[in-house]
């Protein structure tokens, strides 16, 4: 059996074609949906003639329907679908919101919209506000806000979890602030200790230098005992030779030593 077949549309079918179009679809789709619902027929010459005869009337009806759908989209501007669902404390639903749920709410509020006309953005399984699309045709669509709210019991759970999370965040922030303050104090104490050490080392160096200078000065100015040789680098007093003995002048060198009387 062929996997596809051609059919003649008696009605406009969304995502398939308009009335009077001959389209190729899967055999299963044609036999299980289009043909049993009389949305399509075999494209025989007789059927083509019959569909063509009523095509103008069908197109008139479709124009009227399109006008109604445009007005409906205009009415939906500013409308928010509100659905209450059970959820855990983290806001996850026990299940998910479907296009049928949204269409039922719209129908209950006077909007003639079917589930097939609603395109979801993905799984709607959280307490959140979503934007879905109401689409009647490729060039005829509009956005719709859907607010998924928790029921009273779930709201209490979520609020309790929110308060606990805020308390935990505050405690964590306080601990981090305390740790930062302790680190700053520790750094300040370390800086003070380093500064004191540098000042102490400088003072000790100055004291040691002054003491060394005083000792050198004292050593230089201290009188030597008679006969004590001069220290290295020290100049003997005038008139005395090294070892404390009187130094002979140039005049005395040629004279004989005086004898004792």
Describe the structure.
Helices cover 46% and strands 20% of the residues. With 261 residues, the chain is an alpha+beta fold. Among the domains are: 4-69, Ribosomal protein L9, N-terminal domain (Ribosomal Protein L9, domain 1), CATH 3.40.5.10; 77-156, Ribosomal protein L9, C-terminal domain (Ribosomal Protein L9, domain 2, Roll). The strands form three sheets. Strands 4-9-8-6 form a four-stranded mixed β-sheet. Strand 8 and strand 9 (140-150) form a beta hairpin. The mean pLDDT is 82.
- Overall mean pLDDT stands at 82
Give the number of helices.
4
Give the SSE string.
EEHEHEEHEEEEH
Low-confidence sequence ranges = none
Percent in helix: 40-55%
Number of E-type strands: 9
Beta-strand percent range: 15-25%
Strand order of the largest sheet: 4-9-8-6
Q: Measured on Cα atoms, how large is the radius of gyration?
A: 55 Å
- Main sheet characteristics: 4 strands, mixed
Shape: elongated
Question: Span between N and C termini?
Answer: 169 Å
The second-level CATH architecture of the domain at 77-156 is Roll
Put the structure in a nutshell.
The chain is 46% helix and 20% strand.
